[in-house]
Amino acid sequence: MSRLTDLPSDTETDEPIVLTALVSLRRSGIESKLVYPAGKQPAVHNRSIKALREALFTSLQWNEDLVSGNVRSIDALIERDKLNPRQVHRLRKLAFLAPDIMERIIAGDVPDTLTLERLKKDFPIEWEAQRSHFGLSQLPH
User: Fold this and answer.
1) pTM for the whole thing?
2) Which partner for 71 in 42, 75, 77, 90 could form a disulfide, CB atoms 3.0-4.6 Å apart?
């Protein structure tokens, strides 16, 4: 096979032209994306953004219910709303994200490094560490 650079510009050939590029597959919410290292960050799927927003709003509401005294404990919240305890414990901490990260989720301005799956796992409580953990420290706001 010939490489594109090996062919004179006025030569026609039946051989296939092979182009190579370094790429990687990156999971972005519910889909996988082909990412070029020097390329623009891939957009996050609308359904992923919607799921992020819903989880954030739910977490903030639970936190408000706890702080205001509408419910006395997380267990009471789980019982009141017939919730899965594991899900509540995994999502409740979203109420403690840095305000600028919350704003970006609400605006839909999130990189593929900030997914609901990653938010359900442990992340730092310190805001600057959160930005670094989710790859937001290098991105303009």
Assistant:
1) 0.65
2) 77
Is the residue at 65 inside a domain? yes
Distance CA 43, CA 91 (A): 23
How many structural domains is the chain composed of?
1
The one-letter amino acid at 11: T
Q: Is 83 exposed, middle or buried (0-12, 13-18, 19+ CB in 10 A)?
A: middle
**How confident is the model over 59-81, as pLDDT tens digits?**
999 999 999 999 999 999 999 99
The boundaries of the domain holding residue 52 are 43-133
Return the amino acid letter for 102.
Answer: M
- Which residues lie closer than 8 Å to 118 by C-beta, 6 or more apart? 134
